[in-house]
Amino acid sequence: MPSDEDYRQTKRLKKSGASLPSPFQELADWISATYDVRVLNVIYDTIIPDAQPRLSVVVDTEEDALKFQSGPFPNYNEIDQQRVREHFESLFAGQRSHRFNVEKLLVIFVPFERVARIEANESVTTDEIDRLKSRLANKELWEISRCFDRTTFFFYTNAQVQRAEAARLREVYAQEYARLVQPHDEFGYLQRRGVLFHFDSKENFDTNYQGNWLSYYR
Predict the structure, then answer these.
(1) Rounded Cα distance, 146 and 153, in Å
(2) With contact defined as beta carbons under 8 Å apart, do 107 and 57 qualify?
(3) Residues 135 and 110 in one domain
């Protein structure tokens, strides 16, 4: 999430272009050259409850991360995981002491872009949303709801959604919302890929999700 320290640290590195401490920079350079990706950060930590060591390779884009997947996220290619694990271990092989436990080391590949898109979308303020609703001046529009990098325009009824779709309001509203989020899109990911934009209805929300946002976005 945008509030996580790992993301904030990676964001600082991306903006500054600073190098990572050894041996992470050497590993990042090797991964970048071997797989033709941009590695922004490499984070070593442990996972509760059994303190399993983990190596998080933070790459720039979704396309970069897909190069390491063997199926739907988060299914990583085991051969790539093993190659990275072995190269990481080779960087401090022969040293009498080091702080890294490589036994059962889990290697994962995380796209920075995914969280940056969430941060950009969630940075749009309530006042900005209210002004957009006033500007659109559509009495059939009930709510504009955001969750992570997804934005949904809710009309009151299913029939109103159908009318809006028929009138091609989806394209118009998507453009309006894109202009709203653009100042918050610090790295241009949403501008390049587009906002995940949907139409839905309060009728559907109340009938099928009992008016519960947690159930709706689950």
Answers:
(1) 9
(2) yes
(3) no
